[in-house]
Amino acid sequence: MEEKSITEQESLQLINKMIYEAKGYYYENGLSALIYGFSVLICSVLSFIIANGNVQFLFNPFYVLIPIFFIQAWIQNRQDKKKKAKTFTDETIDYVWVGFFLCSIVSLSALFAGLNYLVISIILILVAFACLLTGMITKFRYHIISSIVCLFLAGISFFMQNQNSYLLLAIAATIVWIIPGFMLRSKFKEVLKQEKNQ
Amino acid sequence: MFKELDPILHSQLRLAVMSLLISVKEAEFTFLKERTNATAGNLSVQIQKLKDAQYIEITKQFKDNYPQTLCKITPSGVKAFEQYVKNLQSYLGKS
């Protein structure tokens, strides 16, 4: 592209093209989604086993998620530094998930009130809400559908309120973090491959 | 009566840079170079002109021991861009 004067029609076409180019930019390898997803999945399954009395554990496995969140945030921060541009979409999604994390931490206080299984229902609603916002912001239909599934799981969990609720959380972790994590990872590898070939 | 188009923006490369920056929070020099297919020298000159007009902010820093140039559109840049698009629409609407 050179520094030259253009017609009004060309200006408009150029603006459209560049805005489309900038909005289409993303740099996401899916690693943090996979870390978080597998951590929630393992904690949920572990909690289910403990609740069934098969295994003894010193503390609630979900407390492990707090340091995991910071590790995941550190990985995300490192990845963000590799981005050549920060889009408003990225920023908004970050705020949505930080909001989700803070609400989840507060809802964990219900554990101290002995409302173990109600926490899961609340977290499932929060996951569904964050996932729905992410899907709407990114116009990614998968997230919108998975948020509806999560809401459905949350609805079921209110009637369950037993150790099987942990399994609902494990399903939510798989559909909200693990599957999209693998999808992002394969797309990321594809983009890297294309960049190398260029 | 047609309003005159801003001469700072009515240039292919500068308009491309402004269109990219209006869509993102901030962008690296390399991002702008890749998306516009401009040469580093030409792009440097054009972003300097945008900076002189106070349409963009340029931050130079180091990332992993490598120099990094970050560009960000300023509020007056956003205003100028919006006015440019408005004027452009009046041109196209009446032509």
What does this structure look like?
- The complex is a heterodimer of chains A (198) and B (95).
- Helices cover 77% and strands 2% of the residues of chain A.
- Chain A has 7 helices and 1 strand.
- The mean pLDDT of chain A is 87.
- By secondary structure, chain B is an alpha+beta fold.
- Helix content of chain B is 56%, strand content 22%.
- Chain B has 4 helices and 3 strands, in the order H-E-H-H-E-E-H.
- In chain B, strands 1-3-2 form a 3-stranded antiparallel beta sheet.
- In chain B, strand 2 (56-63) and strand 3 form a beta hairpin.
- Chain B is elongated.
- The A-B interface holds A 1-6, 8-12, 14-15, 17-19, 21-23, 25, 81, 84-88, 90-91 and B 5, 10-16, 19-28, 30-31, 34-38, 42, 45-46, 63-64, 85, 88, 91-92, 95.
How are the SSEs placed, and which strands pair?
The complex is a heterodimer of chains A (198) and B (95).
Chain A: H1 8-23, H2 31-51, H3 65-82, E1 85-87, H4 88-108, H5 116-138, H6 141-160, H7 165-197
Helix pairs in contact in A: 2-3, 2-7, 4-5, 5-6, 5-7, 6-7
Chain B: H1 12-23, E1 24-28, H2 29-36, H3 40-52, E2 56-63, E3 66-73, H4 75-94
Antiparallel strand pairs in B: 1-3, 2-3
